[in-house]
Amino acid sequence: MSQAPLDYKAAGVDYTQVDPLKVAAQQSARATAGNLAAHGYTEIPESRGESAYVVDMGDFYLASITECLGTKALIADQLRATTGKTYYDAIAQDTLAMAINDIITVGATPVSVHAYWAAGGSEWFSDAQRAHDLVNGWKAAC
């Protein structure tokens, strides 16, 4: 028996529900972009909603992104149930690769990375092997 392929909606991500909030958030953020001027900065408005958001800092530009494990964690968990291997080292590297891909689309050089691991509860972190693999995969990608 063949299993149906996993897609975003099957994984619990329905973009018809998510996108309106994303649009509203961008509109609200656009309304506050002028606050950057108090610090001598301006946004690059064309970057809003794109892979990386860019701020003109005067002497340089600052690009920022947020990337997370996302639905890759569901796949890794399914594979672990089958193989016994966590695969969190691999998805950590993939996540960092996606972050770098997003940053370089605006011509920026990635100089630092911040780990964002939303888990829904602290018990997720009690799996020592998964935590070890996640951190080591992140380190290897750096």
Structure write-up:
This protein has 142 residues and is mostly helical. The chain has one domain (15-141). Helix content is 43%, strand content 7%. The protein has 4 helices and 3 strands, in the order αβββααα. It has a 3-stranded antiparallel beta sheet, with no helix packed on it. Strand 2 (53-56) and strand 3 (61-64) form a beta hairpin. Helix 3 runs parallel beside helix 4. It starts with 14 loop residues before the first helix and ends with a helix.
Give the rounded overall mean pLDDT.
91
Low-confidence stretches: none
List how many beta strands DSSP finds.
Answer: 3
Biggest sheet statistics: 3 strands, antiparallel
For the largest sheet, list the strands in their spatial order: 1-2-3
Fraction of residues in H or I helices: 40-55%
Overall geometry: globular
Order of helices and strands: HEEEHHH
Cα-atom radius of gyration: 18 Å
| Whole-number count of domains | 1
Give a summary of the structure in a few sentences.
This protein has 142 residues and is mainly alpha-helical.
Give descriptors for this structure.
three-stranded antiparallel β-sheet; 142 residues; mainly alpha
